[in-house]
Structures are given as C-alpha cells and as structure tokens.
Amino acid sequence: MKKMSIFQVFAAMMLALGLQASALAHTAMTGSVPPADSTVSSPSVMMLSFGAEVRLVRLSLSGSNGEVDIGFSPVATASTSFHIPMPFLQAGAYTVNWTAMGNDGHSVSNTFAFTVDPNAPAAVMDHGQMSHGDAHDESHGHDEAHSHDH
C-alpha cells in the first residue's frame, strides 16, 4: 500500500470538509414567516424557506402552555419552501423547532422564536420581508439511516 504524503492527506481532508460545508450551507433555512424574533398578530400560515430542496422531516411549535398541534407530518417531496396552515394562536411567546433533510442525506435542525400580540401587524408573506435564519445556531446532524462517521 502506497503511503500518502502529508500534503495529500491535508488536501483530501480540506476537500472533504469543503464539500460537506458547502452541502450543509445550501440546506440551511434562508427565511421564515413569521420572521425570527418578530412580534406579529396570530399568523394564519407559517412559511419556511431553504437554500436548496429539502424534505421537512420535523416541525413543532411550542408556547407557554406546551406544544401546539399544527397537524404536521413529515414531507416526502423535496422543496425549497413550505407553507403550514396555523391554528389561532393566543398572545404569548412561541418557539419553532424544525429539521430538514437535504438530498445528500444530511439533516439540519434549528429553532427560532416569535411573539404573538393581537395588536401587532400581521406576518408578511413577501420573500423580501422574510427573516433570514443566519442569526441562529444550526446543528448539522445525520439521519440515522444515512449516518456516516467523520
């Protein structure tokens, strides 16, 4: 077996890390309605947008009284945006938890929060108004069925 030089090992590691980071960056959420950290009246629809086609495999909404039933079930088809009808939300703080899986099998999870105030303006469905998910930490995981050691 031929030994690899330190340069070859370093180059291979950098290439692998660069490709993984690139794939994960495109899977990240690019915006949401309601926007992260916003105060809105009760939204009729939640919208999540991503930088590449993903499958939304987990989505939950929690408020001060616990989890809110939004009737979500995992999505089999990949898309860059998802529209989820919302029930009427009482005034208060809410947290959205989501997990999306890219075509490469990597999953990305994140959370964002918003506040409902009946006197606040309605959430806007305009892409130009969407909040960007870059302000929040994202944990990059793997679907257990497609797990890889790094």
Give the structure's gist in a few sentences.
The chain is mostly beta strands. It has 1 helix and 8 strands; from the N terminus they run αββββββββ. 15% of the residues lie in helices and 41% in strands.
List keywords for this structure.
mainly beta; Immunoglobulin-like; 8 strands; elongated
Notes on the structure:
The protein has one domain (6-146): Immunoglobulin-like, CATH 2.60.40.1220. The chain is 15% helix and 41% strand. It has one helix at 6-27; strands at residues 29-33, 39-40, 45-63, 66-68, 79-85, 92-102, 106-116, 139-142. Strands 1, 2, 3, 4, 5, 6, 7 and 8 form an 8-stranded mixed sheet that branches. The two termini are 23 Å apart.
Question: How many discrete domains?
Answer: 1
What best-fitting shape do the alpha-carbon axes yield? elongated
Low-confidence stretches: 9-25, 126-150
Helix coverage percent: 10-25%
Q: Tell me, rounded to a whole number, the average pLDDT.
A: 77
- Rg is 18 Å
Distance between the first and last residues' Cα: 23 Å
- CATH level 3 topology: Immunoglobulin-like
Question: What is the CATH architecture annotation?
Answer: Sandwich
- Tally of alpha and pi helices: 1
Structural class per helix/strand content? mainly beta
